[in-house]
Design a protein that fits this description.
2 domains; EC 1.2.99.2; 2Fe-2S; metal ion binding; DNA polymerase, domain 1; alpha+beta
Amino acid sequence: MESAHFTQVTVHVDGETRQAEIDNRTTLLDLLREHLGVTAPKKGCDHGQCGSCTVLLDGRRATTCLSLAVAHDQAEIVTAAGLGDQTSLHPVAQAFLDHDGFQCGYCTPGQICSAVGMLDEVKSGAPSHVTEHLERSPDLDDDEIRERMSGNLCRCAAYPNIVAAIHEAAR
């Protein structure tokens, strides 16, 4: 039953329509993890600084710990678990595996979602802070990758392998 402090929300997570009645103050991360049992996005810092909660939200990467769930009713959400299919990994996830782009794995789902979103941004020509020539599509060199992925932290410092994995996935 909907009241002044609770709202029924519907989200489309990894191809499945899901509903929950939630307190209006519930973050998108808590909706996913606590109400819907979707555990790919992780709760790291809970302040939008580590990126472990990153998903693709309506096609763009977003930190779910900073988003209120009620603001995303009917949103399309893709987590790392929703990338790829039953028979093969998404190319970015495969590249992370091939290049040991993880250590403990806690940040990996957020890193992978962020990398997928970042590659889409590059493909669309969106510049970053370090993009040298704004009039053409960015060159995906190490500096460009590091800048674009700077919102995703890895406590284990697997950064060289993450950069190598993104280079491979971009090819």
